[in-house]
Design a protein that fits this description.
about 550 residues; mainly alpha; about 60% helix
């Protein structure tokens, strides 16, 4: 009897929704290819091992001992525990779950039939997929969808869940510094509703189009939004960095090297096909607004404008844009289809027997889709696949050489490899630089760039930082420069990376006999050459 009822209920519209989320899950499962993942994992391991939040840099010799605003500490702990207990499968399934839940919060904000919604969400997913990486910023993606959903309920469904905003923001500020996206949503909401009041933007002909009427949020109800937003802002101090997080986001974006050289902080390059879905969604939304015959809601307009601007300024904001643009696009597409008389209408139900047969076919199609999704995600979840990928994209061979031969002294490394080196070599070796751009600041990063490109000051800077061996991509500008120097020798080379060591320096680890330099100091065993880093860092632990 229960199966019969289920088959009668399981129609093609519900199949479309199920296929949508199965497909999104399959899209989201991928190998953790971003090297920043690795320093996050190491920081999470440190926090778990030491039972306290890591707030000092122990991973680099250029900033060793300096205070570090570790805004993602809770995400790092979560990621490390998943990786520790479930390996690559833990990270992969976590990514898939976060993406599916994010879009599950977006789906009810949309209008139109399931087929239209599914099509729009697929394009939105393609837009946001450029930021689907195993990093804490993925939780900012989820919480952006959560705040948008709370505001949607308040405006469009008159369901008050504003009390969720303070705990969401407190959780967010401990997971990732992207909490600023939540305040962008709140500012857009308030500004848009003010526009709705002042300009009376709800059109009288919406009723004729049978479009849902949504009058402006009353001034009293809008004051509640402002009040909860201010309360959430005050509660941001509930984190290990306390009041520092009120302005931390501004401090990060003020690092000039971010916009100049870090790809995710630059304006997107729309020539590759993978970046072009943003253009499709933006133009489709603007076009639908003009053709739907439905007046644009002020909050929709303000939200779309703010997040479009943010996405055009930095590629890392393409994901949040997709989350907020999809509901706006769906509202106007649904209105346009209804206006043109081509919206899908449910077919009259057939006989119970035919509906059961169709339900069985739909169930079989879902089973096939799930099987195909499992086949697709099987490889990225396996250790062998991930380790092979690392050998193809990261200096795994060079790292093994370092572990075996133990070169002495400080290391210079490529920026993109810093996180991986922290995971594989710390605490025996400290990196020159890694993805924590807010920690290094403009000066260290510009020195790094000068060295990496083999600029006029490169050799002097290597001396300044007392670098004894260099790990750099084979054939790059730094390789060309060092090949012309008599005091530098190739110690290891493969297609991916080259290790250069100073002539006259013992390639193997030097024993100092100073047991004090090997003491724990809460960071574990260190390479002997790290002993003199304390003075260079300017702060003794």
């Amino acid at each position: 009897m229960m199966m019969r009822r289920f088959l009668l209920w399981w129609d093609v519209r519900r199949l479309a929704v199920a296929l949508l989320f199965v497909g999104l899950f399959a899209m989201a499962i991928r190998a953790p290819a971003d090297t920043d993942t690795w320093w996050h994992l190491q920081a999470g391991r440190w926090t778990v091992d030491q039972a306290r939040v890591l707030q000092t840099d122990y991973f680099s010799h250029t900033r060793y001992g300096s205070p570090w605003v570790n805004h993602s500490w809770l995400s790092q702990v979560l990621m490390y525990l998943l990786f520790e207990h479930f390996s690559y499968a833990g990270l992969g399934l976590w990514m898939g779950a976060v993406i599916v839940v994010s879009f599950a919060l977006v789906y009810p904000q949309m209008e139109g039939d399931p087929f239209t919604r599914a099509f729009i969400l697929v394009i939105a997913a393609a837009t946001s997929s450029v930021i689907w990486v195993a990093r804490p910023q993925l939780l900012s993606f989820l919480l952006t969808a959560a705040v948008a959903y709370v505001l949607y309920l308040y405006k469009w469904r008159r369901v008050n869940r504003l009390w969720l905003l303070p705990p969401i923001m407190v959780l967010w500020v401990n997971l990732h510094a992207g909490y600023a996206l939540g305040y962008m949503l709140l500012v857009a909401f308030v500004a848009g509703e003010v526009v709705n009041h002042v300009l009376a933007w709800l059109a009288p002909d919406e009723a004729a189009l049978d479009a849902p009427r949504c009058p402006p949020v009353s001034w009293r109800r809008l004051a509640w939004v402002v009040g909860f937003a201010l309360l959430s802002l005050l509660l941001l101090v509930i984190n290990p960095n306390t009041t520092r997080m009120w302005v931390y986001y501004l401090d990060t974006v003020s690092v000039g090297v971010l916009q100049d050289f870090i790809q995710e902080w630059q304006s997107p390059n729309f020539h590759p096909l993978y970046a072009q879905p943003f253009i499709w969604v933006l133009l489709a939304t603007l076009g639908a607004m003009g053709l739907s015959g439905r007046r644009v809601d002020g909050t929709d307009l303000a939200t779309l404008a703010m997040f479009s601007y943010a996405a055009l300024m930095a590629g890392r904001n393409l994901g949040p844009f997709a989350l907020v643009a999809a509901p706006v696009l769906s509202r106007h597409v649904a209105a346009a289809l209804k206006r043109w008389g081509i919206s899908r209408r449910p077919r009259p139900p057939g006989s119970a027997r035919s509906r059961m047969v169709l339900g069985g076919i739909n169930l079989a199609l879902l089973a096939i889709a799930i099987l195909l999704a499992l086949l697709k995600v099987w490889s990225p979840l396996g250790a062998a696949f991930n380790e092979q990928l690392q050998r193809e994209s990261l200096p795994a061979g060079a790292v093994e050489w370092i572990q075996e031969n133990r070169p002495a002294g400080r290391m210079f490394n490529h920026y993109n490899w810093g996180g991986y080196l922290i995971w594989r070599l710390w605490p025996d070796y400290l990196v020159f630089v890694d993805g924590r751009t807010d920690l290094y600041g403009d000066q260290v990063l510009r020195d790094y760039l000068e060295i990496q490109r083999g600029g006029p000051q490169a050799l002097a800077l290597l001396d300044h930082y007392d670098v004894y061996f260099v790990l750099t991509p084979t054939g790059d500008g730094l390789c060309t420069l060092l090949s012309c120097q008599q005091d530098w020798t190739v110690a290891y080379r493969d297609e991916m990376a080259t290790i250069w060591v100073r002539n006259g320096e013992d390639v193997t680890e030097k024993e100092t006999g100073d047991e004090t330099d090997r003491s724990d100091h809460s960071i574990g065993h260190r390479h002997p050459a790290v002993a003199h880093l304390r003075t260079a860092a300017g702060q003794v632990l």
